[in-house]
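> example.struct
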């Protein structure tokens, strides 16, 4: 009988580093492949999938909270971010990942893109 691959299913707290900034987040990876993320400035939803033993990818769209004025490094007001991350579980209680964050304005125009790195720990 083959063993099922390890998955990130569950709740995690972590940080994402981009453009010299570090932001905290909480993400819940659901068993059905969906996810929900919450930060101080935004909330988002997306999906995840296992790509190998301990490896997974996730995609999400984060909408900035209405009380947050988020200005991109290019000087435009940001409405939401689309994020794609390739991640790897390190044991059962930690994951790290790298990917891209693409910032969009309220008219869906891409106003900025950057690299992102993340590090998270499972919530017991």
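> example.seq
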């Amino acid at each position: 009988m083959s063993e099922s691959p390890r998955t990130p299913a569950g709740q995690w707290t972590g940080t994402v580093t981009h453009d010299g900034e570090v932001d905290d987040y909480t993400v819940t990876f659901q068993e059905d492949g969906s996810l929900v993320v919450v930060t101080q400035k935004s909330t988002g939803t997306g999906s995840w999938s296992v790509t190998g033993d301990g490896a997974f990818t996730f995609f999400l769209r984060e909408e900035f909270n209405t009380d947050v004025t988020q200005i991109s490094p290019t000087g435009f007001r940001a409405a939401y971010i689309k994020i794609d991350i390739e991640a790897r579980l390190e044991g059962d209680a930690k994951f790290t990942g790298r990917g891209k964050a693409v910032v969009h304005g309220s008219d869906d125009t891409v106003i900025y893109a950057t690299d992102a790195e993340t590090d998270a720990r499972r919530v017991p």
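> remarks
The beta strands are 10-18, 21-29, 34-39, 42-52, 55-64, 70-71, 77-78, 80-89, 94-104, 110-122.
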